[in-house]
Amino acid sequence: MAPSAWIREQETEPSILDVTTRIALIPGDGVGPEVMAEAEPLIDWARSRGHRLETVRLSYGADHYLSTGETLPEEAYADLRDGFDAVIFGAVGDPRIPDGRHAEEILLRLRRGLELTVNFRPCQPLPGLSRQGLHLEVFRENTEGAYCLQGSTEPGRAVDLAVHTEVAVLRLLEVAFARAQARGCALTLAHKANVLKHGHGLWVRVFQSLQAAHPDVPARGMHADALLCALVQDPAPFGVIAADNYLGDLISDLTAAFAGGMGTAPSLSWAPHRPFRCAVLAEPVHGSAPDIAGKGLANPVGMILSTALLFRHLGWESEAETVERAVAAAMRDGARTRDLGGSLSTAGMGAAIRDRLSG
Ligand code: NAI
Ligand code: MG
User: Hey, whose CA ends up nearest to atom 5 of ligand 1?
Assistant: First the structure.
């Protein structure tokens, strides 16, 4: 089954096709607004193809925080949760705010508050890049683990807790098993249960219980350190990898490197149990890249492919495929930003992709 069909079957209610889809755009900091500027025209294009959708741009991020002291106000959060269907997010992070407080209160708040447990990070090298044919997918738990923001700093001692709940682990792993089954590929759980006996012990137990229910999925657990070594040596045998928040973050940046680097990697997060109207968020894997921000150097492909993943999630398969084909065609024709050895600007790359939407 194609990924599209699988995601649609899992997540999309048919009724969503008949109503206006409300999408919040949060460009954020650094290169976030630059790559968002290349995703926005795709929304207009989807609208021109008959989809009823409305977008609202929200300016939360470092500048807003520094000028008002506000990160994501409670009212705005509640409006997002109950009044929108989806979020497209750029990136947050600014050297002027070294403790990253605003990033925590905006992005982590959205991921945790909206219960966006599943973070899907596919890796499929685009035409012209090495490792053609590779198809890896990382499913990262997105709301807890070591990123639960619980801990303390005392003189000479610092503690970060990692909290894992059975309900979130089960939600993530059920999706990963279903995906490996649909693709007919291997599933690997990354863990360190040999030392993280409690938290990762729980992951292994839940994984084993699902293994019993999916005897046809070639599934195994691997210590994450050994997994990283095996991935670098040969990623081809790994179809789907599931991991907790911290390990999934690390592993998916590595897999991004197999497919052109940070600038090209897309991601989609969703809440499989749909607790709120707003149950999906598209964002590139990369951060705000302050080293290249404001220079037109950012590659918009990760953001554009994330938007395609969102279209597919909303049931707009034809638009998702058309955008993905346009990205592939632009790459085949040699369109490249500097990170891929070319000289196109962010806007130039976005335009090269849009020019190929009808092809
Ligand atoms: P980063 O992903 O922003 O940058 C890592 C490297 O990748 C840099 O060399 C950067 O120039 C390059 N890069 C990133 N995006 C690119 C693009 N679109 N095109 C070409 N090259 C690109 O990660 P870093 O440097 O660790 O973090 C920078 C800031 O971003 C920090 O404040 C961090 O907390 C934040 N961050 C935010 C994330 C988010 O909003 N989801 C995710 C990761 C980091
Ligand atoms: Mg990361």
Answer: 289
